[in-house]
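Revision sheet: structure tokens.
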Amino acid sequence: MATYQQMIFLNLPVKDLEASKNFFAKLGYTFNAQFSDDRTASMPLSESIVVMLLTEPRFKEFTKKEIADSATTTEALIGISAESRAKVDELCDAALSAGATPSGDPQDHGFMYGRSFQDLDGHNWEVIWMDPASVEG
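Predicted:
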């Protein structure tokens, strides 16, 4: 019997789709052309997690609420894992080099290490590594 793998689609409003695509490409991400167009970019993070970058007018088609002003409001904290401490630093350093701004101080708890940044639209990304031995118990 096949097991169903639930997926997560994180939809984020962006002011400039091409600038956002260029930013995330500099971090090593690619885009699925089948689910992208001039108003939407589909960016797979894994087989089960996809970030959908939507121009603000396109994003507005999915909600009756106002879009949060991410310059003054935190609408979400987006946490993603990294395979090592070095990969946390690599991704965050690449983000900062590509135009992101730091978001808080690095957190080092020995068994867990994380850094964060705000992307070009002010969305807060938390990049975290956790020692697999600490998770196992």
